[in-house]
Amino acid sequence: MIIYYSLTGHTKKLAQEIAKKTEDKLYEIQLDKPYKNNPLVLARFTKEKATGVIPTAHKIDIEDAVIYLGYPMWGGDMSLAMQGFLMANDLSGKHIKPFITSGTSTLKMSLKTLKKLAPDAMIDANFNSDML
Ligand SMILES: Cc1cc2nc3c(=O)[nH]c(=O)nc-3n(C[C@H](O)[C@H](O)[C@H](O)COP(=O)(O)O)c2cc1C
Description:
Blueprint: E1 2-4, H1 10-22, E2 26-28, H2 40-51, E3 66-74, E4 77-78, H3 80-88, E5 95-101, H4 111-117, E6 122-123
This protein binds flavin mononucleotide (FMN).
């Protein structure tokens, strides 16, 4: 299963490319209060980051053992939408293959957060979707 968050479409495109190769099903993360793709997103994100607010996300049934987890980097870390998803959904025992899109930030910069929010998952930190 491929689980992703995408505000402006980059991560969605990458998720779809992975789906073509692996034939896994795609799930786009749904937030109770979605971000809007406009310049105000930066103000909302900055405020949430400053106050420690993480948006709440929908809970889903996850049967697959392998989860491709895709998110954009925001503020040098995993986007808060994905953080909200991981807080709402228990990925214990799953194999997580993370992938990101960003300007310059790297996946590595988000691994601490990923490990914190999915402490009992096996994380393939060296996953590279180009290798599929
Ligand atoms: C609120 C916000 C914060 C961002 N912060 C970063 C950042 O810290 N580092 C970075 O490289 N890119 C940052 N970006 C750029 C996105 O990571 C990049 O455009 C990404 O591909 C967007 O993915 P999406 O189209 O799937 O939403 C930020 C974008 C937004 C909207």
